[in-house]
Amino acid sequence: MTATRREFLMAAGALSASALSWPALAAPQFESIFMFVPAAPGGGWDGTARAIEQACKTADLVGSFQFENVGGSGGMVGLPRFINQHKGQANAVMVAGAVMIGAAISAKSPIGIQNTVPVAKLTEESGVVVVPANSPFKSFGELVAAFKADPKKVPVAGGSAGGTDHILLGLMLKALGRNPREAAYVAFAGGGPANAAIIGGQVAAGISGYSEFEEQIKGGRMRALAVSGESRIPGVSVPTLREQGMNVVSANWRGVFGAPGIQPAQRAALERLISSMRDTPAWKDILVKRRWADSFQAGSAFEKYVAQDVNDTVGVMKDLGLA
Predict the structure, then answer these.
(1) What is the number of other CB atoms lying within 10 angstroms of the CB of residue 166?
(2) Secondary structure class of 207 (helix, strand, coil)
(3) What is the pLDDT of residue 11?
(4) Fewest CB atoms within 10 Å of the CB: 70, 100, 145, 168?
(5) How far apart are CA 23 and CA 136, in angstroms?
(6) How many C-alpha atoms does 112 have within 13 Å on its Cβ side?
(7) CA 218 to CA 24: how far, in whole Å?
């Protein structure tokens, strides 16, 4: 059967109307994002930044990412660069967190994380207290006894001086009635050297985020004695400090910050992007795999959180003799 010209035009018109009713492919929320990481590749901030990229690109939220890593001094080498070179840049973000607050206070820096624009808090990671596999300390109680006797004889490895690892050790000693300034804290610039020092027995113990030591713990080269969060890490049978009689809770948080000088509407757009990313299956999968706790806060709530954390950290740093 041959269709008439009129029937052909009617069919074509119906097809065109149907095509117009189909949903259009959603455009990315940002064509590009400039991701600034004030740390060397491979650390916690860099890992968080790369995870953000992975989740955003999987969900087509961002067209492309450009990265810049500037490490050193708990983020204090990179922070001035981000502030000065990217002021007012609407698509520039920095990944940082609690470590930078302590580093700024310790360095008595005139600038700090509060000089950026808080966008969203993403994760918290419990600290873990470890000892070498062949350590004479077979339990957390035995390590505590050594701290009570003389903290100066118990060297503990961790990240930068004044960072979350150092602060956790200070809180532990204070809870035991000792002066936090007695801590024999050995600061390392990266996870690799700290791991080597702990495994090699150059220090008595180590403190870091669980993910930093996970491979060594699973491989039997370190033993985990306690974690510092409110509750145990899912899938990890290591008791908290509180469970073992020490009333200390501490976690290393990480978040996203915008450049100073951006407009309220530009800040809101960044908040929408990170909020959308947080809801993606890809990000939820990353949280599970990396054992990160979801601690999402955005906008003014996050800004208040940062201000309070700065005030709280100043107090702890004074106890440590670093402020």
Answers:
(1) 28
(2) strand
(3) 45
(4) 145
(5) 65
(6) 22
(7) 48
Kindly state the tokens that stand for 58. 């999987």
CB atoms within 10 A of CB 254: 24
In the chain, the largest separation of any two C-alpha atoms, in whole Å, equals 100
User: Any idea how long the chain is?
Assistant: 323
The SS3 assignment for 15 reads helix
Residue with tokens 């113990």: 205
Look up the pTM and report it. Answer: 0.81
- Please report, as a single letter, which amino acid is at residue 233: I
Q: Each residue's pLDDT tens digit in the chain (323 positions)? A: 444 444 444 444 444 444 443 344 568 999 999 999 999 888 889 999 999 999 999 999 999 999 999 998 889 999 999 999 999 999 999 999 998 999 899 889 999 999 999 999 999 999 999 999 999 999 999 999 999 999 999 999 998 888 899 999 999 999 999 999 999 999 987 678 899 999 999 999 999 989 889 999 999 999 999 999 989 998 899 999 999 999 999 999 999 999 999 999 999 999 999 999 999 999 999 999 888 899 999 999 999 999 999 999 999 899 998 88
Domains and CATH numbers, the chain: 30-124+251-319 (3.40.190.150), 126-244 (3.40.190.10)
Q: Which of 298, 37, 250 is nearest to 126 (CA)?
A: 250
Q: E strands within 211-277?
A: 222-227, 251-258
Contact criterion met (CB below 8 Å) for 142 and 205: no
Read off the DSSP letter of residue 69: E
Q: Could you tell me how far CA 59 lies from the centroid of its own chain?
A: 21
Number of CB atoms found within 10 A of residue 116's CB: 25
| C-alpha–C-alpha distance, residues 134 and 153, integer Å | 18
Q: What are phi and psi of 283, to 5 degrees?
A: -70, -40
What pLDDT is stored for residue 269 in this prediction? 98
